[in-house]
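PROTEIN FOLDING TASK:
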Amino acid sequence: MNKIIDAIPVMAWSTLPDGTADFFNEHFLSFLGMTAEAAYGWGWTASLHPDDLENLTSVWATLISSKLPGETEARLMRADGQYRWFLFRANPVYAKDGSVTRWYGTNTDIDDRKRAEEALRRSAAFLAQGQTLTETGSVWWKPATQEIFWSDEAYRVAGYPKNQQPTVELMLSRCHPDDLTDVGEMVARAAEEGANLELEHRLLMPDGDVKYVRIVLQNIGPDRSAPEFIGAVTDITRRKKAEERLRRSEMLLAEGQRISLTGTFSWKVDSDEITFSGELRRIFGLSDNTVVDFDRITERVYREDLPLLAEKMSNVRAGSDNPDYEIRLKVGDQLKHVRVVGRIIKHLDGTTECLGAVQDVTAQRVAEEARDKLRSELAQIARVMSLNTMAAAIAHEVNQPLAGIVTNASTSLHMLSANPPNIEGAIETARRTIRDGNRAADVITRLRVLFKRGTSAMEPVDINEATLEVVSLLTPDMQRHKISLHTELFETLPLFKGDRVQLQQVVMNFLRNSIDAIGEPSQLPRDVVVRTEFASDMTIQLSVEDTGCGIAGVDPDRLFDAFHTTKASGMGIGLSISRSIVEAHGGRIWAKANSIVGATFGFSIPNAKSDGVSLASRS
């Protein structure tokens, strides 16, 4: 009999009425790795998992007390130290008086089932947690039987308690009124035709809140005429609200760019990928579907500004931010002035991106040019008025002594014509005539000194430094006229004694004449070069070379005559005054036409040690 029990593929055992083990089949002992003597009584419990001992002991005590069959689950340690789950079943054997004479039982290995159940529970937990985190519930629907299953998260998304039976009507009852017709038609079509369903719509919740959901149903039924759907319902409210905020932000940004005439760009320096905003495309005259690359950009940049753009791009490639700068664009027949600002961003992946903005400042520049033109016209009017005032002053001051001279001369003639002539009276009248003549000469001298601002003191002059001060004053005018100004100054020029302010006036006259000669912006070169030299004849020389209209066909010497001008609105005073200033310094002034385009004006001053006499005494 024992051989038969040992042969069965389950663990078999028996105990005395009090539960003390008195038999184990060979299969049981082999699993435990114990001898029968070691396992008898309660020795076998040494192989129980510590976490299961209390529960098994309690169940076993209940069975003994109740004298009824029962079962429980617990883990036993195999001979190799591994625990496995077993189903413990115990059945009593009764005596005629109803008492228990023995207990017989078996242990069935359920470890694989328990592990599968654990994996299933873990999978279900992961699924539930995943649905919670993604706000996505599972849905199963069989239209033929009207059976519907919702996961816990689907109930939460729909806003119903878990004990409420889901139905199509229940789902549609919370559909937003504006979406109800379309949703109802799509659901009915899916039920009739078995077509897959994918839609987004709104739910109107009892508290008045609006929730956005996305529903996806896939027909897994074997026959389209008897569909069976499985799918998901996702709460996309936060996404929809974020999209709405993003759309509003983009709308405000686009409107702000349109109002401020400012476009934005992104330049991925490593790949040269360029992205323009809509407003920047408009500024550059590019359509929405035009691919933006450097060829498209440079073909619209004014030719003279291409070197500046290349310099700024080189700075970005070297990793430095761009300060503000301005360039011009030629978009169709329109000339545009734009201001560019760029900033460098270093990404975590090591790549570099330049983000920036481009503002169309054409209207501002046109207004500034109009303002400058008006200012120039007002200055011209002021100069004319000043000359009128000076002429009136000269006439007023000289008129009285001249009138006295005429009167005295007439009186003298009258006295000399008398018979006999009044010699003494004529002599006195002649003296008065001489006095009035001297008065007229004094008036002219006083006005001449006033015009020349009196006597100028000599001082050591650094012509390079004095020139740079003038250049800095005129740089804004040069920029407004889009003229490139270059300086080539001899580094070791000696100091000389002269009137710094008057020499700066000469340089300013030269530069202003160059600005006028170059004229309005065009595609032609627009360059001015200011150059100083120490000539072989030991003179200090300064010249201003431009690419303007030039002086072809004009006698260079006549350009420095008073009131001689080649400009329609000129007065012919500036160069004449300049010559007076240079010659007062013992120097020479000249003008010459350039070999290709434009003209050069210059002067030279001897490098002599002056004793500090004033210019007035030398002029």
